[in-house]
Design a protein that fits this description.
Sulfite Oxidase, Chain A, domain 2; eight-stranded mixed β-sheet; binds ligand MTE
């Protein structure tokens, strides 16, 4: 499939705005007459923490089984460098994302389950036992970060859903609201953002539903009020601001796969030896530093997940 429009991922890293330039630009613009509407709105809107009725659950118990082996990415760095195409095809979507209303927020569980349900996000969160896990995150664009997420294993959500034996995949869908998410007005993208996992992947110990980060409710630009993190896969699999989990026997076609299947497949497991068609995946830039480090197979999480792929060698597991 031809790409008709350039995406953020097509921009060489040398062309993206370094954070210090971005921050200076923000303070410059904030001082300009009339710029408040464009830049200051985010600060006038309620932060995720202020409007989260489950804010009392943070910080949650730290789970020491998950050690990143590298420094945690500073919260400020991570908060101002995000991929969230609903708010723009660049990294500085922080302000725009504050427009997303995250309460009330309903999550639909449907498809091949014992009983379909719609559950309020706060009911869902309070049914779970939250814990903190520090995970490495490897973007397909060859940058990486380390984040202390708070949430619960996706297996607990699968237990709640009670899928039928016929269901072999979970399809996850992001909200659709072009009124506030201006990126969704770009009709060349197949909105809403969709991602999927096999049921075996969804119930793996590593697979985490994230509701918080850095010891508090998750900021909107990270995908509040609930996102996925599957840390052995390229970051685009970790879908943000989820409104629907559909249990199905059909392999979901994800957002990027629909746009460019030859570059972004269903499996998307991290592998330094399998290059992206347009760049190497052998190493990664550590977000917030000048460091480049070697990329690890399955992002270093092989002991948890490698067995999932036995017998699937014929699939494009690393693309
Ligand atoms: N989910 C939605 N709904 N929209 C997106 O654009 N971007 C993905 C993923 N989830 C994306 C998304 C990509 S490419 C990455 S690398 C991560 O979110 C980025 O997460 P972060 O902004 O918290 O670093």
């Amino acid at each position: 499939m031809l790409i008709k429009h350039p995406r953020g991922w097509d921009i060489p890293e040398t062309l993206t705005t370094p954070e210090h330039v971005f921050l200076n630009r923000r303070s410059f613009l904030a001082g300009m007459t009339g710029a408040v509407g464009a830049i200051g709105l985010g600060t006038l809107r309620a932060s995720a923490e202020e409007i989260d009725p489950t804010a009392d659950l943070y910080p949650a118990r730290h789970n020491e089984a998950f050690v990143a082996g590298r420094a945690t990415t500073p919260e400020k760095t991570n908060s101002m460098y995000n991929n969230f195409y609903e708010f723009g095809s660049h990294k500085q979507i922080y302000d725009a994302a504050q427009a997303l209303p995250i309460r009330p927020w309903a999550v639909v569980i449907d498809g091949e389950v014992e009983q379909e349900m719609t559950i309020d996000i706060d009911d869902l969160i309070r049914r779970m036992t939250l814990e903190e896990r520090v995970y490495r995150h490897r973007c397909v664009e060859a940058w990486s970060m380390v984040v202390p997420w708070t949430g619960f294993p996706m297996r607990k959500l699968v237990d709640l859903a009670k899928p039928l034996t016929s269901a072999t995949y979970v399809r996850m869908e992001t909200f659709q609201n072009p009124e506030v998410a201006r990126g969704q007005r770009a009709n060349w993208y197949p909105w809403p953002y969709v991602e999927g996992l096999t049921l075996d992947e969804a119930v793996n110990d590593l697979t985490f539903m994230v509701t918080g980060a850095y010891g508090k409710s998750m900021a909107k630009q990270f995908g509040a009020p609930i996102r996925l993190h599957a840390p052995w896969k390229y970051g685009f699999k970790s879908v943000k601001s989820i409104v629907r989990f559909t249990f199905t026997r059909e392999r979901p076609v994800s957002f990027w796969e629909e746009i460019q299947a030859s570059e972004y497949g269903f499996w998307a497991n991290v592998n330094p030896e399998v290059s992206h068609p347009r760049w190497s995946q052998a190493s990664e830039r550590v977000l917030g530093t000048d460091e480049r480090i070697p990329t690890q197979l399955y992002n270093g999480y092989g002991e948890w997940v490698a067995d999932l792929y036995k017998g699937l060698e014929g699939e494009r597991l690393f693309m």
